[in-house]
Write a sequence for this structure.
């Protein structure tokens, strides 16, 4: 999912593609004010939704600005997805959110094959292994192909916080 100007088009496309390919997934970004409602629409049987915080520098009119507001929105969205019949994919490296999600999946009595955790390759590998050893599915995201350098540079340029994410991953192996 890219910046908020593309959200409607992406979700329209998802609905059309899912008619023929119901396993098609989409990403929702918890920093967008609209996302809790989108989760409600998409928390249906067979629906695969990756929930991330969001990586773009978005205006206040459409997006929560503080870390706390974004995290609270993430938890509300996770609750909606876990209460529904779909397959949520929790894409975050945030230890506080991971702890809350571990609690929420137990609260909703979710079998381990009905959701998963996702993290970027090389970011918090020890945590990835810890979750896998607990029996959770952990998917590791690897950007690949000839466009990787442009992708990385766009991500770093879009939002300074992304640079911090990569630097933390380089120095810390938690
Ligand atoms: C699989 C995947 C797919 C994604 N797809 C999209 C997408 O389609 N569109 C989009 O906009 N964004 C996407 N993102 C990026 C996402 O929106 C966030 O920008 C990014 O994941 C950073 O947020 P965070 O929740 O991981 O934690 P942050 O908000 O970066 O960090 C929160 C806290 O986590 C801890 N932490 C973070 N990294 C480390 C570390 N390496 N070591 C120790 N502690 C650490 C720190 O305490 C930090 O304060 C994706 C992310 C993933 C993992």
């Amino acid at each position: 999912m890219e910046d908020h100007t593309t959200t409607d088009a992406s979700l329209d496309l998802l609905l059309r593609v899912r008619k023929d390919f119901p396993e098609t997934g989409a990403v929702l970004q918890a920093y967008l004010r609209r996302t809790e409602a989108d989760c409600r629409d998409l928390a249906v049987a067979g629906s695969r939704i990756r929930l991330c915080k969001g990586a773009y520098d978005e205006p206040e009119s459409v997006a929560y600005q503080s870390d706390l507001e974004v995290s609270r929105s993430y938890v509300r969205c996770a609750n909606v997805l876990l209460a529904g019949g779909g397959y949520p994919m929790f894409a975050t490296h945030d230890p506080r959110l991971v702890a809350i999600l571990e609690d929420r999946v137990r609260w909703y009595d979710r079998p381990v094959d009905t959701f998963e955790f996702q993290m970027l390759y090389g970011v918090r590998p020890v945590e990835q292994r810890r979750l896998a050893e607990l029996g959770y599915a952990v998917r590791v995201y690897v950007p690949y192909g000839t466009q990787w350098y442009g992708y990385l540079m766009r991500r770093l340029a879009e939002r300074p916080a992304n640079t911090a994410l990569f630097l933390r991953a380089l120095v810390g192996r938690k």
